[in-house]
């Protein structure tokens, strides 16, 4: 949650809906219930209710101006279900948008979600984009980054103090019948931690330059990816320390060999020294981690029959601070269109026999396991239903401190839904789980989706 809720921003945006000619509201309400029985913790009965609400208001005095709001709120009717209190909520986005009638140009102002080259951010500020001559495009954004509350023991104020302003831009060039290339720049925070009046040991700021590419020169080939360079001024590296200025390589290529056979390869490399800096969720990503991560993947998709699709895949990962992992297996899908039924299943083997650096008493342990999964989906008319079951079998249960000496983990989830009216759907999930952490657990979820719209003054 943002540390300082932009109440004034939200109030101003909501009041703007009074000028709209067309308003669409969509709502999803989730009511969950389960009993929690975690070893070494008190038993609890949990009943959280979460409401997601979105509003799209168009034609605010002119056809070019619109308003978009989306947020959520949660309250616990029984015991507290998450860290931070029994009540919580946030504004995910809320902005005014002006769309020009030429060059796909637009301006957004408010709380916006930015996806421009290497900039994938939540910002309280302004963004804009437009097409240029010769196939070029340009976009830019700037404002104050949205920073979520840190629920760990890490300092609460330093991320917001250092990340006082964020700005980014991307210049792209579309190549006819070939693809697109682009270069982008991002600066998050005006002063690096080492240059503050009182230098800080953890740097939450970023300065990055990126290049991205999307190529589809023929129907049988698709290639996309990006490279991000870390151009921030860091403290001098320690003797023997290997500090790359490559924050990320992320590439994917798919080749269609036959109509029913395709091959996909992926390559990923991340340098956490630069990649984790400036994240909006420091409670999930540890800025103190300086290691590297790399991953290679290959999958083959084959449809020998019109109703059958098979996918074989293998993925290897290497993380300096935790060790190596290989995951390989096969998934299958059967589609019976006339019966409105889809069946699927798969088996994977994960080899992670030496997870490193747990503590001084457990320097390494294995999380190798096998995974088997089966599922079914049925949909006809207004009714839909699904059933999904998964079972994990761990080979090193007595070495893994997180498994509480349990070698098997399993869960089954059943769902059903009915479209009661054109704008109202009711659905629910019921799950049974037997896990090392929560023992045997039954969870229920009831979901109500509601949409409505109306035309205001002057609307149709």
Structure write-up:
- 4% of the residues lie in helices and 60% in strands.
- It has helices at 7-16, 158-162, 272-275; strands at 22-36, 44-46, 48-58, 65-76, 87-99, 106-116, 119-131, 136-145, 166-175, 179-188, 206-218, 221-230, 246-258, 261-271, 292-305, 308-319, 323-336, 341-351, 355-356, 364-365, 369-380, 383-394, 408-421, 424-435, 439-455.
- The chain has a 22-stranded antiparallel barrel.
- The model has no long low-confidence stretch (mean pLDDT 86).
- Keywords: Signal.
- Residues 1-20 form the signal peptide.
Largest sheet: 22 strands, antiparallel, barrel
Secondary structure: helix percent: under 10%
**Helix-strand topology string:** HEEEEEEEEHEEEEEEHEEEEEEEEEEE
Poorly predicted sequence stretches spanning 5 or more consecutive residues: none
User: How many β-strands, per DSSP?
Assistant: 25
- Beta-strand content: over 45%
State the helix count: 3
Mean model confidence by pLDDT: 86
> Could you tell me how far the N terminus lies from the C terminus, measured between alpha carbons in angstroms?
39 Å
Signal peptide: 1-20
Keywords: Signal
